[in-house]
Amino acid sequence: MELSRLSPPKGSRKSRKRVGRGPGSGCGKTAGRGSKGQKSRSGGNTRPGFEGGQMPLQRRLPKRGFTNIFKKQYAIVNVRDLRRFEKDAVVDETALVGAGLVKGKRQGVKLLGHGNVDHALVVRVNRCSKSAQQGVEAAGGRVELI
Q1: Roughly how many angstroms between the first and final C-alpha of the chain, as a whole number?
Q2: Rounded Cα gap, residues 64 and 141, in angstroms
Q3: pLDDT tens digits for range 104-146
Q4: Is the Cβ–Cβ distance between 114 and 146 less than 8 Å?
Q5: How far are the Cα atoms of 46, 77, 78, 110, 121 from residue 115, in angstroms, in the given order?
Q6: Which of 9, 30, 50, 73 is the most exposed place for a label (fewest CB within 10 A)?
Q7: CATH assignment of 75-145?
């Protein structure tokens, strides 16, 4: 056996269909597109979901739910993130922004109870979970809602 004598098995390799190359090719004249109509034209096709003018499925089905445009976007801070502040420090929104914990568009800060803090702090936030409040108070600090 030599590399120069290797060839693929009979019937495994098929030449591609060359459309629009005359009547002898068996696919000339209309090039397999049929005659007349939108899909026979160059560049002529329909958008996804088009049903020939019938009301499309995505418009026939009922819609549910809505987006509340008045929803408040709170910046989320966990209790474990408060470890970086000094003992007895007052932690408010400006302190959190300065520490890099809060950034971007927001309508307030919400404190969540993931993790724990080992020293007393005074935390001033807009919203607070019960577990977060218990975590801060267990370390000797307090949470003030503004």
Answers
A1: 86
A2: 45
A3: 888 999 999 999 899 999 999 999 999 999 999 999 999 999 8
A4: no
A5: 55, 11, 7, 15, 15
A6: 9
A7: 3.100.10.10
Q: Is 100 helix (H, G, I), strand (E, B) or coil?
A: coil
Q: Where are the domains of the chain?
A: 19-65, 75-145
Over residues 73-82, the mean pLDDT reads 93
Condensed to tens digits (0 to 9), the pLDDT of residues 80-104 reads: 999 999 998 999 999 999 999 998 8
Tokens of 33: 């597109």
Given a contact cutoff of 8 angstroms between Cβ atoms, the answer to whether 8 and 1 are in contact is no
Which residues, in sequence order, are bridge partners of residue 77? 111
Cβ atoms within 10 Å of 106's Cβ, excluding its own = 16
Quote the tokens at residue 57. Answer: 């499925």
**Sign of the torsion angle spanned by Cα atoms 135, 141, 143, 146:** negative
When pLDDT is averaged across residues 58-79 and rounded to a whole number, the result is 92
Find out whether 108 and 72 touch, Cβ atoms under 8 Å: yes
What is the reported pLDDT for 105? 83
